[in-house]
Each structure stands twice: as structure tokens, then as C-alpha cells.
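User: For my dataset I need records formatted as: sequence, then C-alpha cells, nothing else. Please produce one.
Assistant:
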Amino acid sequence: MNKIISFVMVGTNDLEKSSKFYDAIFVHLGLKKISTSENMICYAHSNDPHEVKFYITKPYNKKPASVGNGTMVALLAESNETVDKFHATALENGAIDEGAPGIRSDGNYYGYVRDLDGNKITAKCISNWVKKYIKIAIFALIYIFLVLVLAVYFYKNGISFF
């Protein structure tokens, strides 16, 4: 298993306003609304519409929704332009700017907002150079592994290069 997150759920005190907000920003990330009830709205990726990935909900305990200090939801974006659109659309729909789109310390591209209920949401695009170096690192590890396998083989079979 290479995934640890099953879904994300954020609380809201106004499902209708929250739904309009998320409908507007999720179009850029390929997420779409797949079901609605009086207490919850469910979103899934257009490539996998049967697996809910994001919920907006009224709290089960009937108390007002509130945000977690230090809590943030990061959503993957296809490109830097997608992050830009996500951020701009969020602001146009009432979000608070928590950090303009740009490259951060890890080399990836982020745009941060707070939704209408104060939940911190970011869109993240993994930079091409990060992807490139990950591939290089994997190739290097495979190469080292193969060299070690050959070295063990030669050692066990008494083959020497010296």
C-alpha cells in the first residue's frame, strides 16, 4: 500500500455557501460533487468518481464547526497554472489569502487559502526538477544494488579483478 490518506473531511456551518465555494475551486483540480445530503457533501476525482476523497460536513455532535490550529489540507495540482487558478478562484469566492502561489522551501509550487469556515487549504504542484531528481535517485539506487549483487556473485565464485 503506497497511500495513507483515505479521505479528507472539513467542517462547515453553512453547507450551501461552502458547496458553492468548493464547487468553484475544485473544478481546477479535477474534483466534482458526487452526492449531497442535509449534513454532508461528497467530492471525488473525475478519474475515480466512486471513491469519495473530500467531504464538507456539519459536525456530527451538532456543535459549531471550527478549525484546527496547525491543521491544513494539501491537494495535488497538475501544474503551477492549476495552482494559480485554484488560488485566484478561491479568493474570488471569498477565501482569505494565506500565501500567494509560488515555490516554497521544498522546491514545489503552492498556493494557500482559508475557506469560508477558516479551514486552511493549499494546492500543491510537485515541481518538474523534484520529479527529475527523484527519478535520478531511484536509478542510482538500482545501479548501486546491481553493482552489489554482482560483487557478491563474484566474491562467492572466487572471481577477482585484482
